[in-house]
């Protein structure tokens, strides 16, 4: 088949916080003309709704009871990814410290995961040219038949330095601790934890520039498409 008429390609990119999933996925999707989905933004959006509606984050039963209520819509253009909850643009508020500190507890609730996973699968199957989906459990649970699975890693020091730079925070040590705590919670939850799929390609980005990581993933997609 000619490249121009290629079959939709599904790319799953997983890994802990600060490994470069969002920046890499967005750039790869833009370069290859694919859609892009930030699944972390969806979990942040449902967490934002729980916080805004006064739901007790320490009560998984209370979270489960209302998990079906908010309508979460993700725009999948990599040049302009969007996220709304019941029609409200929440791209800014979902990055708040409060949401960041509560998102692991909310996303550990099975009813929340079932709801969000369904949204993710539906977006992936409707992407005409294909999609790059980034998260924690995409290769293992959400899209186990993805054409390419990549698992990004980096040292905690590199990840904390990147996040601190982004948050314009000088306290790299506090950022490092918060990041390690969130990764531990995400990796140890019962339902669909952060994990590398057996057939994922692991890329350690500690010593790589973002441009190098993007090039690496684009090459992996092209090799898959060429049937190598
Ligand atoms: N290989 C890299 N080298 C240096 N900085 C990077 C690299 N990859 C990503 N970054 C930067 O690190 C920060 C976190 O990256 P991001 O893509 O949001 O990670 P994740 O989605 O895995 O949490 C961003 O500011 C991004 O520009
Ligand atoms: N597929 C996913 C994606 C994110 N999550 C949860 C766990 C993560 O700590 C939060 C936030 O994810 P996000 O990718 O926005 O996190 P960072 O960009 O690393 O700060 O969502 C998840 O449980 N499953």
From TrEMBL:
Family statement drawn from the similarity comment of this UniProt entry: Belongs to the cytidylate kinase family. Type 1 subfamily.
Catalytic activity: dCMP + ATP = dCDP + ADP; CMP + ATP = CDP + ADP
Highest taxon above the source species: Bacteria
Main subcellular location of this protein, as a coarse class: cytoplasm
GO terms under cellular component: cytosol
Keywords of the record: ATP-binding, Cytoplasm, Kinase, Nucleotide-binding, Transferase
Organism: Streptomyces pseudovenezuelae
SUPFAM superfamilies membership: P-loop containing nucleoside triphosphate hydrolases (SSF52540)
One of the protein's GO biological processes: nucleobase-containing small molecule interconversion
Disordered: region residues: 179-198
Subcellular location: Cytoplasm
Coiled coil, from the record: none
Protein's name according to its UniProt entry: Cytidylate kinase
Cytidylate kinase domain: residues covered: 11-222
UniProt biased composition (Basic and acidic residues): 179-189
Residues binding ATP, per UniProt: 15-23
InterPro entries: Cytidylate_kin, Cytidylate_kinase_dom, P-loop_NTPase
Entry EC number(s): 2.7.4.25
GO MF term (any one): dCMP kinase activity
